[in-house]
Each structure stands twice: as C-alpha cells, then as structure tokens.
Amino acid sequence: MSTSVTERIILLLLRLSLGWVFLYAASHQVFAPGWSIAGFLQHTKTFHDLFAVFTGSAMAPVFSFLVAWGHLLIGLSLILGLAVRLSAPFGILLMILYWMAHMDFPYIGDKNSFIVDFHIVYALVLWLLIVRQAGHAWGLDAWAKNQDFITGNRFLNWATG
Predict the structure, then answer these.
(1) Can you tell me the distance from the alpha carbon of 161 to that of 148, in angstroms, rounded to the nearest whole number?
(2) Residue 21 — φ and ψ, nearest 5°?
(3) Which contacts of 60-66 are long-range, i.e. CB under 8 A and separated by 24 or more positions?
(4) Dihedral angle computed from the Cα positions of residues 47, 49, 51 and 52, in that order, rounded to the nearest 10 degrees
(5) At what angle do helices 5-27 and 60-80 cross, to 10 degrees?
(6) Which residues of the chain have pLDDT under 70?
(7) Domain that holds residue 104
(8) Rounded to the nearest 10 degrees, what angle do helices 84-101 and 118-131 cross at?
(9) Could you count the other beta carbons within 10 Å of the beta carbon of residue 39?
C-alpha cells in the first residue's frame, strides 16, 4: 500500500466513522430485547412485496439476528481494520437494501433525497475502503497479513489483503 500520510489519515477517519455508524446501530439491536426488522420493513413502499417476505413470524427472527450481529461484526471489523475486504461488501449489501427499503420512488426517505441518499454514499465509501485497502492504514490487516497462519490460508490471506 503506497499512499501518502494524508490519504492514510483520510482512510482511517472514513473507516472509523463508518465503523462507529455500524456499531451504534448494533447497540440498539443486539442489546435490545425483542428488537425486530419487521417493524421497519412493514412500512416499505416501492419494494414492499420484496421486503414483506422478511416480516413473517418464521423469517423475521432469523433476519433480525443476521442484521443485528452483522452490524456489530462489520462495525468491529472497520474499527479494528481487520478483514475489511471481507466485511465491507456485506456493509455495501446492507446499505443497498436499506436504500431500497426507504424508497418511495424517486424519493428516498423524504422529499429531500432524490434517488440518492446517505445509504448510497456509505456504500461508495465502503467500496473505497475495499479498493484502497483501508485496513492497512493503521489497522490490523497490515499486521495480520504477515502472520504465518494468515499467509498459509488463501481465504484469510485474501480477507486481510
């Protein structure tokens, strides 16, 4: 990773900021008894039929668990700078799904966001973090990449790349 100190600082700040966003979301989900995605998804408009499937009594607990713990794991990964290449695509997927869930086409969430809102911006920043190997900018990916148990495992070697 050959980048200037300024670029490394910007990558670190973006990584920590988005990590905090995911951790804060997780704090309201993982540690809140009875939290469910059903309440949020029942009010979707443009893609209501797609998201309504996840609000049923069989699906909602499973996907609520996945979303809550996904937020926690993505947040920790970004804060620590460990396996950013693995966690960021899941973050991008969540951001695209949230963008779709907030959509009342062509508006997103309210009349102030026309087609693009912060979910798209977050997804683009996560993509940047992958491309620029942000976990190597004062993160644990730089350390992990040199560990024998990582270099000997193709998947872990890729995840910390």
Answers:
(1) 14
(2) -55, -45
(3) 60/36, 61/36, 63/37, 64/29, 64/35, 64/36, 64/37, 64/38
(4) 150
(5) 150
(6) 1-2
(7) 5-159
(8) 160
(9) 11
Domain count, the chain: 1
Copy the structure tokens of residue 109. 């969430």
What is the amino acid identity at position 110?
A: D
Q: Which two tokens stand for residue 155?
A: 């998947």
Q: How many CB atoms neighbour CB 116 within 10 A?
A: 12
pLDDT of residue 39: 86
Single pTM value for the model: 0.93
- CA pair distance 59, 124, nearest whole angstrom: 29
| Start-to-end CA span in the chain (Å) | 10
Give the residue from 78, 69, 60, 61 showing the smallest Cα distance to 21. Answer: 78
Locate 102 and state its tokens: 């907030």
Identity of residue 83:
A
Query: Amino acid letter at 52?
Result: A
Residues 10-39 have pLDDT tens digits of 999 999 999 999 999 999 999 888 899 998
Sheet holding 107-108, edge to edge: 103-104, 107-108, 110-114
